[in-house]
Design goal:
Distance between the termini: 50 Å
Radius of gyration: 32 Å
Structural class: alpha/beta
Helix content: 40-55%
Strand order of the largest sheet: 5-4-1-6-7-8-11-10-9
Number of strands: 31
Strand content: 15-25%
Number of helices: 25
Largest sheet: 9 strands, mixed
Shape: elongated
Length: 774
């Protein structure tokens, strides 16, 4: 297995001096952390990304040659793409919105279009370099559309996605235009594994998935068509061993001794960040200013060293931020500084690794207080560098790292008094307390370092791939589908049992709006007219709906989950006497919940009542659904009825009426050599369980099921029926390729017996249904 890492930037950055390319290692946490893991991992890898600058056509070979030394493959972007994609949509729309700076968000249609084009360019590039057996790991907010683009090209490709910045609450995410946010969510869900740094980001993403595209999750797992997507938190670690080793080196010891000599008699507070409004640099300076004002006893005894790394120097708002920082620094020094004491030292430059480690070691307090941060690895690096376990970390509660480092002094960076109190506490903390706190954090960081983080994620990807492979074995495609068609062709008598809503047509907000289209009617007409076919639509719909839509077609009809049955050209008959006295009592309850949930509606049938909530707010619906089920439990305890949870519906019906017993009645006395049974809901599981072992039972959508096979949705069901209708002894094209890679060996399919289906004449006892019944 080769791991293909895909990120906006490669592990090296390209710059040009007099038209000659110069290469430096990238400094970001993603690049350094992943590169460290790649160097130690015992597996082949390829890194795909942008080299960090526009590269002219005649210079690209030199960049490609350098990239080979990193096992990298560069994606080249035009200058206008870089401007509109990276400096535009990524950093003017997604970055501020995801970090809760909605007042700084720019909504630009051209930027969005360029974002899509660049993601497509990455997909095109990957199409040319991927090989069979590759696993793809896509990183960060710049490439949120890429997983779905790859999924469309390679249906069975193992894909993981990891977001390194916060995912915002739905109330912020919804500020994006509806089409943008839906595409972003669907883009990420093209992956089979989606990762975030913290549980909070995972929760917010799943909420946005529900409210944007309507997919509900169960313990972080979503069923999307015939795919499963797992969403989980994987807090990124650091290269703990490298940092600890560097912190203990002789060179570092010498630098630490020199720094402490320079700060003799004073406590040293250290802060390092790149220039960005999310880092809270102004808030940090003003918090220190308030500390000095409220604690005059510390004047002359403490120095704050502030290091700011240049970032986005071409953006005017960043240049303005730099000016404000320098003005605030000057104001603090002017107000509190003396001839003998400078309260604050400011430097605007990149600190290399061999300089920053001694500063971590020498300082007494590290002040890491972003206004919002996905993780913040600086906080972890500081703790890892404290080989004597002294020193105090003051950490913003808005950083993802705060979830893993509860022993740090956490602070709300927006509140100056809280900030000042935290600095005072840090400076006064006893040594034994410092050691106790740091020991706990160090043990945790040592165990869960960057290698463990990457191994956990890639291991989860591998597990997802195993699950996908098992599901592909039951997907009705390839050789399995060919055998079904062959069995259909060779049979003299065939039975087709078809559910309606969610199987032949998609679900609709209102049940009355899901009428069949002309294509479906023509297809059912053609299937029913063939003398060797017996077809039945078996639905939870009222018989009036089925009669109005399909009464003139040569198909049998079963309504209300089996209460009513009508053979071709026959009359409706009630399968068994059914009591309905309970309906008035239950109707009152359901009507009350229609009033309590805007968007809910009550559908009244002859022998059942259905409470639909597809149009309701999904989170409110989840709460009301639980309440309704609890109420129905009490009211139906001594009533001979069954409560069923369907797809966005709760239905109450008479006990003993189900699709399974109706299907057995319909098949009784007939001898079919071929049986196809297709459904999408828990009510269809009753059918699957009573079908003969040789039947082709098909669940629409991915779920725990008694069916042997599954299809992705109504379009796939129709394609199968169309293929059967036009079949003449030779199978048509499969619904999807058996393998993502053209020319790869196909996996063996799992087949059932092809013996004729003999249905028992007597109805079996009612099977135990997986749905909630009372």
């Amino acid at each position: 297995m080769r791991l293909v890492v895909v990120s906006n930037r490669l592990p090296f950055t390209t710059a040009f001096e007099r038209r000659t390319p110069k290469f430096t290692m990238s400094a970001g946490g993603l690049s350094t952390g992943l590169w460290s893991y790649m160097q130690q991992a015992e597996q082949p890898f390829l890194w795909v990304g942008w080299p960090g600058a526009h590269v002219a056509q005649n210079q690209r070979d030199a960049v490609r040659e350098h990239a080979r030394g990193y096992n990298a493959s560069p994606v080249f972007l035009a200058p206008e793409s870089i401007e509109r994609f990276y400096h535009g949509f990524c950093n003017k729309t997604l970055w501020p919105l995801f970090h809760y700076f909605q007042n700084l968000v720019h909504y630009d249609d051209e930027g969005w279009a360029e974002y899509r084009r660049v993601n497509e360019a990455f997909a095109d590039h990957l199409t040319g370099v991927l090989e069979p057996g590759d696993h793809v790991w896509v990183h960060d907010y710049q490439l949120m559309l890429l997983p779905e683009m790859l999924r469309q090209r390679f249906p069975t490709l193992p894909i993981g996605f990891f977001l390194h910045i916060p995912f915002p609450s739905y109330e912020l995410f919804r500020l994006l235009p509806e089409t943008w946010r839906a595409e972003l969510i669907n883009g990420v869900l093209g992956a089979s594994l989606v990762g975030f740094h913290t549980h909070d980001y995972t929760r917010d993403f799943l909420t946005s998935v529900l409210r944007t595209v309507g997919h509900e999750h169960k313990l972080g797992r979503l069923a999307i068509g015939d795919r499963a997507v797992r969403v989980d938190s994987f807090p990124m670690g650091i290269d703990y061993a490298r940092i600890a080793e560097s912190a203990a080196s002789e060179e570092t010891e010498q630098r630490v001794a020199k720094l402490r000599e320079q700060c003799h008699g004073q406590k040293l507070i250290f802060s390092v960040d790149r220039l960005d409004y999310t880092k809270g640099l102004i808030n940090r300076l003003r918090g220190y200013e308030r500390f000095l004002r409220q604690n005059p006893e510390w004047h002359g005894k403490v120095t704050f060293l502030v290091s700011v790394a240049p970032s986005r120097t071409g953006v005017e708002s960043y240049r303005q931020m730099k000016r404000e920082i320098e003005q605030t620094v000057g104001s603090i020094i002017g107000e509190f500084g003396t001839v003998d004491w400078t309260p604050l030292v400011y430097q605007y430059r990149n600190l290399p690794f061999d300089e920053i480690i001694p500063l971590y070691r020498a300082c007494d307090v590290a002040l890491i207080t972003p206004l919002r941060d996905g993780m913040n690895l600086v906080a972890k690096e500081f703790v890892a560098s404290r080989i004597d376990r002294t020193g105090v970390l003051v950490l913003s509660e808005m950083a993802g790292a705060a979830k893993e480092m509860p022993e740090a002094l956490t602070v709300n960076p927006y509140h100056g008094d809280e900030f000042a109190d935290a600095i005072a506490r840090a400076l006064e903390m006893p040594i034994d307390e410092q050691v106790r706190r740091n020991a706990l954090m160090q043990d945790r960081l040592r165990r869960y370092d960057v290698n463990r983080w990457a191994a956990d994620f890639t291991g989860a990807m591998a597990d997802s791939e195993k699950g996908d492979a098992e599901r592909r074995a039951t997907r009705l495609t390839g050789e399995t589908r060919a055998q079904l068609v062959q069995s259909f062709d060779s049979a003299h008598r065939r039975a087709l049992l078809l559910d309606y809503d969610g199987t032949l047509v998609p679900f609709s907000d209102k049940p009355a709006n899901a009428a069949p289209d002309d294509e479906l009617l023509e297809l059912l007409e053609a299937i029913g007219r063939r003398p060797s076919n017996d077809a039945v639509i078996i639905s939870g719909r009222p018989r009036a709906d089925l009669e109005r839509w399909f009464g003139d077609l040569p198909v049998s009809l079963i309504a209300e989950h089996g209460a009513w049955m009508r053979s071709v050209d026959g009359e409706w008959r009630l399968r068994r006497p059914i009591e309905t006295e309970w309906k008035d009592r239950i109707r009152t309850i359901l009507e009350r919940y229609v009033d309590r949930l805007p968007g809910a509606l009550l559908e009244q049938k002859e022998f059942s009542l259905a409470w639909h909530y597809r149009r309701a707010d999904p989170e409110q619906a989840a709460m009301r659904t639980r309440e309704l089920l609890d109420d129905l439990t009490g009211f139906t305890r001594n009533i001979d009825v069954q409560v069923i949870e369907g797809n966005k519906v709760i239905e109450v019906r008479a006990a003993g009426v189900n699709k399974g017993s109706a299907a057995v009645d319909w098949l009784e006395g007939k001898s079919h050599e071929f049986v196809l049974c297709v459904g999408d809901d828990w009510t269809d599981e009753d059918m699957f369980r009573v079908m003969p072992s040789s039947a082709y039972t098909v669940r629409v959508g991915l779920a725990e099921t008694a069916a042997r096979f599954h299809l992705s949705g109504p379009p796939a069901v129709r394609r199968l029926l169309q293929q059967l209708d036009r079949s003449g002894g030779v199978s048509g094209p499969s619904d999807a390729p058996d393998d993502w890679f053209v020319g790869a060996a196909r996996r063996p399919a799992r087949f059932g017996s092809t013996a004729p289906a003999r249905v028992p004449s007597a109805s079996p006892s009612e099977p135990r249904s997986p749905q909630r019944g009372f």
